[in-house]
Each structure stands twice: as C-alpha cells, then as structure tokens.
Design the sequence.
C-alpha cells in the first residue's frame, strides 16, 4: 500500500513540476509579447492562447490537488484518531467487564458466606430452643418437687 502511495506521490510531484515549468514558460512568452509587441500569425497566437488557457486550468487543478491532499491528510488523521478512540473504548469496556465479573464473584462469595451463617444461626436457634425446653421441663420438675416438699413440711408441722 505504501509503495502504491509512494509511486502515486512521485507521479503527482512530477506532474506538478511539469505544470510549474509550463506556467513559467507561458509567463516568459507573455512578457516577451508585451515588451516587443510582436505580431504573430494566427496559428501561433491560437496555440499561445490555448497554452495560456491550459496554464490557467492547470493552476486551478493544482489548487484542487492541494485542497484534496489537505482533505486526505485530515481524513487520515481523523481515521487514526478514531482508531485510537476505538482501542481506548475497547480497553475501557474490557476493564468494566472485568470489574463486573469481580463484583459478581464477590457477591456470590458473600451469598455463600451468608448462607453458611444462616445455617449456623438456625442450628444455634435450635439448640437454644432445645435448652429452653429442657429448662422449662426442669423448672416444672422443680416446682412439682418443691410443691410436694411444701406439702410434706406443712403436713409435718400440722
């Protein structure tokens, strides 16, 4: 691709040099005609007029070529900038995806830990409930035994 651009660029430069040389020749011919006021035959005059018109056309085309070259340079620069922005956006997206993956994994781990704690709390709650029932049973036994003791003590005193 670069070889094609280089060859194309060389041809443009050569063409521009030829055009510049033709313009210089025309200027010289025009100055000569003005100074000497030479009358030339119709054929020579028409050729000179044609060359003069071609020189003007060439100048316009040169300007157009320069404008197109500037536009091409601007387009190349814009494309490079767009590629750079695209790479940066892709990099940002990958970083965001990676962070989202990390957060998801962290949430999953937290959920697992929470489930384990909940199971542990349920087990402790069951133990507490079991012991509470045992305490109530023991209190009932104590009250029952305590009631019989009172009855015995009151019966002995009577």
Sequence:
């Amino acid at each position: 691709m670069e070889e094609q651009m280089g060859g194309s660029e060389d041809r443009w430069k050569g063409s521009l040099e030829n055009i510049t040389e033709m313009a210089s020749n025309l200027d010289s011919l025009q100055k000569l005609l003005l100074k000497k006021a030479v009358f030339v035959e119709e054929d020579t005059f028409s050729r000179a007029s044609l060359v003069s018109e071609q020189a003007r056309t060439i100048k316009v085309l040169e300007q157009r070529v320069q404008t197109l070259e500037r536009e091409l340079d601007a387009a190349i620069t814009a494309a490079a900038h767009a590629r750079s922005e695209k790479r940066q956006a892709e990099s940002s997206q990958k970083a965001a995806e990676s962070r989202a993956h990390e957060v998801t994994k962290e949430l999953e781990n937290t959920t697992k830990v929470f489930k384990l704690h909940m199971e542990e709390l349920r087990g402790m709650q069951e133990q507490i409930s079991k012991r509470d029932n045992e305490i109530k049973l023991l209190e009932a036994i104590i009250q029952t035994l305590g009631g019989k003791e009172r009855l015995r003590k009151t019966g002995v005193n009577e």
